[in-house]
Design goal:
The protein contains seven helices and 13 strands. It is of the alpha+beta class and 280 residues long. The strands form three sheets. Strands 7, 8, 9, 10, 11, 12 and 13 form a seven-stranded mixed β-sheet that branches. It has a four-stranded mixed β-sheet with strand order 2-1-4-3. A two-stranded antiparallel ribbon has the order 5-6.
Length: 280
């Protein structure tokens, strides 16, 4: 849990778009941004994208900035996947930003995580993915059965169905039965900047004979594990990609696998941030 809450606000200044703080940039990166003062204004204790009258213009300005920073090695290779930068989830975007540049500017990102649940012999089991070892992030680590970022242009449900197909080969008719169970939020300092993420959580009860199959190369293998073993892995190892732990802890708390008698129950409830409607 500590890996998802290690954030020091004093290291950052606001990143401002149209007068509103939409993200945060590390103070030690301010000097390198001086070379981009045609697109940024770094005075007054914040970094502001220079004025543009429309979302499309701001998107073009930000894209030029991201391309420069990527060419200079400050931002990873751009992915061509655009995320909405908006005052709240679902609002009209102020601009669209390449996913690779999101942490550098500490922009809010959203994603979907799905637990694939099987009931077998009066016991709950979870399908767990192992990430492909050629992934640029968290290669070979354990992951939730389905997880992915929320790109602009798709609803949460559309994105969930897409990710279910790509990552686990779940047919749309089956994936459509997934139940939304809430959301968790975290801010954590990472080498690339700041991860400020909201994960929308889902559960899907799967037939006993269903076996997931990856279709996009992101998953190396799947394993069906009893909930008790998944809890042990989360508690005793660092095998899971860090934000998967939050989604799984939420699952354990909701299903009573970590109940009031657990030594860390109260602390986990305190640390697990469940965003309200105005915070996503």
């Amino acid at each position: 849990m500590a890996e998802c809450t290690a954030h020091d606000p004093s290291l950052y200044v606001p990143f401002v778009v149209t007068g509103a703080a939409m993200g945060a940039v590390r103070r030690d990166r301010l000097p390198l941004l001086d070379a981009h003062d045609d697109l940024l204004d770094s005075r007054y204790g914040r970094v502001a994208l220079r004025d543009a009258s429309t979302s499309d213009e701001r998107t073009r300005h930000f894209a030029r900035l991201a391309e420069r920073l990527a060419a200079e090695g400050h931002v990873p290779r751009l992915l061509g996947e655009r995320y909405a930068v908006a005052p709240r989830f679902g609002a009209d975007p102020l601009l669209l930003a390449d996913r690779a540049a999101i942490p550098f500017f500490g922009l809010r990102a959203h994603g979907v995580h799905l637990h694939g649940v099987v009931h077998r012999a009066a016991e709950r089991w979870l399908w767990i993915a192992r990430r492909a070892r050629d992934r640029t992030t968290f290669p070979g680590m354990l992951d939730n059965m389905v997880a992915g970022g929320q790109p602009h242009g798709l609803t949460l449900r559309e994105n969930l169905l897409k990710e279910c197909h790509e990552e686990a080969g779940i047919p749309a008719a089956l994936a459509g039965r997934a139940v939304a169970t809430g959301a968790v939020h975290y801010r954590v300092d990472v080498p690339s900047g700041l991860r400020d993420d909201v994960l929308f959580l889902y559960e899907l009860e799967l037939p006993d004979d269903f076996v997931p199959t990856n279709t996009d190369g992101e998953v190396e293998s799947f394993e069906l594990l009893p909930v008790a073993e998944v809890l042990r892995l989360v508690t005793e190892t660092r095998e899971f990609k860090f934000n998967c732990n939050l989604a799984l802890i939420d699952y354990f708390l909701r299903h009573g696998d970590v109940g009031p008698g657990h030594a860390e129950h109260a602390e986990l409830l305190r640390l697990l941030q469940r965003p309200g409607p105005d915070e996503v």
